[in-house]
C-alpha cells in the first residue's frame, strides 16, 4: 500500500489495483516524455510534489498467507477504510462476504453468483 504523499513510480509488467478517495490531484515529477490526448507533453508538477511529499521510510511487512480450506488468503494491505486481500482458490468453491467487494482476477477464470 502506498500512502498519499509517497513518491512512487509505475513500471512495465506491474498489475496495479488502485483504491483511493475521489481526487483529481496527481503531481508528476517525471513522465517519460509521454504526451496527452492533445499531443503535447504532459505537465510536470515538481515544486508542488516536493511540498506534499512524504520522504519518511516505510516499514515493509511481509504478508502471511493463511490456509482456509481450499483457499489461501493473504491480507495485502489494511487501513481504517478498507482491506485488500489476495485469495488463491484451488477448487470451485468460494464464498464472498455480505458487504461491498471489488474483485480482480489475475489468473484463471471465475463464475460469480449473487445470493440476493
Compile the SSE list and pairings:
Blueprint: H1 46-52, E1 66-68, E2 71-78, E3 83-89
Antiparallel strand pairs: 1-2, 2-3
Could you describe the largest sheet, including whether it forms a barrel? Answer: 3 strands, antiparallel
**SSE succession:** HEEE
Q: Which term fits the overall shape?
A: elongated
Overall strand count:
3
Per DSSP, the total helix count is 1
Strand percentage lies at: 15-25%
Counting structural domains, the number is: 2
Q: Low-confidence spans: pLDDT under 50, at least 5 residues?
A: none
The CA-CA distance between the termini, in Å, is 32 Å
Query: What structural category do the secondary elements indicate?
Result: mainly beta
Mean pLDDT: 83
Alpha carbon gyration radius: 19 Å
What labels describe this entry?
116 residues, 16% strand, 3-stranded antiparallel beta sheet, 2 domains
Describe this structure in words.
By secondary structure, the chain is mostly beta strands. The chain has two domains: 1-60, no CATH class; 61-116, no CATH class. It is built from one helix and three strands. Strands 1-2-3 form a three-stranded antiparallel β-sheet, with no helix packed on it. Strand 2 (71-78) and strand 3 form a beta hairpin. The protein is elongated, with a radius of gyration of 19 Å.
Amino acid at each position: 500500500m502506498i500512502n498519499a504523499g509517497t513518491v512512487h513510480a509505475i513500471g512495465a509488467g506491474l498489475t496495479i489495483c488502485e483504491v483511493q478517495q475521489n481526487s483529481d490531484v496527481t503531481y508528476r515529477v517525471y513522465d517519460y516524455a509521454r504526451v496527452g490526448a492533445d499531443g503535447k507533453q504532459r505537465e510536470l508538477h515538481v515544486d508542488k510534489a516536493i511540498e506534499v511529499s512524504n520522504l519518511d521510510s516505510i516499514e515493509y511487512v511481509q504478508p502471511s498467507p493463511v490456509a482456509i480450506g481450499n483457499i489461501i488468503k493473504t491480507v495485502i494491505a489494511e487501513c481504517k477504510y478498507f482491506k485488500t486481500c489476495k485469495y488463491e482458490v484451488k477448487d470451485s468453491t468460494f464464498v464472498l462476504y455480505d458487504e461491498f467487494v471489488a474483485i480482480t482476477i489475475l489468473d484463471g477464470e471465475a463464475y460469480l453468483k449473487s445470493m440476493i
